[in-house]
Design goal:
mainly alpha, binds zinc ion, 2 domains, three-stranded mixed beta sheet, globular
């Protein structure tokens, strides 16, 4: 038993050393995308939002989190953006930015997976969708590849297919809206009494 454990840990050490000696191996796999410049983003009080890259996390896809940092400044943490394409990076940036634009960050956080929480997520997806549509050349194709990557990542993470499906249909419906992201944001702020 002991012998096997030893062998096992020895193999792990060898593997780690090999991957350190040949970092170029990594460029053939998923973990090699360039990290895009962050979008323009300020919150509902006009404060600029800071974007911070965090590379050393164990997740398999890019992910984001909107918050305030220790100094109280609005921030978007960009986890492992090098693991996903430019399209998905942009979508996540704009989604997290939207949580700042709509004032979510300074409101009490609704319980996880509650109706109110899901509503906030749908609103952020919608704003990200409208911004990609209107602010980027080739917006439609950026969105298309972001959606398909998002779908794969959510399936890999074990989200139920119904929630993946409803997220994607919400994004598709938003793409067809007649209003701009700014008009949509103003509507949300007005509803919340924040403007
Ligand atoms: Zn969100």
């Amino acid at each position: 038993m002991k012998m096997i454990d030893l062998m096992h840990s020895k193999n792990i050490i060898v593997f780690v050393l090999l991957s350190l000696s040949f970092p170029s191996w990594a460029s053939n796999d998923k973990s090699s995308f360039e990290i895009t410049d962050p979008p323009n983003c300020s919150n509902n009080n006009g404060e600029s939002v800071i974007f911070t890259n965090i590379r050393n996390s164990n997740i398999s896809s890019a992910a984001g989190m909107a918050s305030r940092d220790n100094d109280g400044l609005p921030v978007v943490y960009r986890f492992s953006y090098h693991k996903s394409s430019e399209s998905l990076q942009r979508f996540i940036d704009l989604h997290e930015c939207a949580h700042h634009q709509t004032g979510d960050i300074d409101l009490p956080h609704p319980p996880r997976n509650s109706q109110a929480h899901m509503m906030n997520e749908s609103i952020s997806d919608c704003i990200a969708t409208l911004r990609i549509r209107d602010e980027y050349e080739e917006g439609q194709s950026i969105l298309k590849s972001a959606i398909s990557e998002l779908e794969t990542a959510m399936n890999e993470m074990g989200f139920p297919s119904t929630s993946v499906g409803s997220r994607i249909s919400n994004i598709s419906n938003c793409f067809e809206k007649k209003e701009t992201a700014q008009e949509f944001i103003e509507g949300v702020l007005e509803f919340r009494g924040l403007n």
